[in-house]
Amino acid sequence: MVRKLKRMAVFSSILMIGGFLAIFAVIGYRLSNPVSAPQAAPIPAITNALPKGSRVISTAVSDGRIVVTIEREGRTEVRVFDLSTLQLRGTLRLEPQ
How many domains does the chain divide into? Predict the structure, then answer.
């Protein structure tokens, strides 16, 4: 019984040391061969004029869309643009009652 216990302890120790060596090998490999970050595609220069007297309140990017919230003449307006083409996809006007 003691002999089996010694074999299991030796096997467990060898396995643990092998795991640590593998982890250190991967860390060393990644430090010596850094992966360059992928280059982002250039954003085209597109001008989308806001109505005169308006101001941008907030912007958000999600699910392939850019959402711009503007305020103009006391009213809030939400404009949704397609992220890939930057074309206007929709407008939501919120007016006080």
Answer: 2
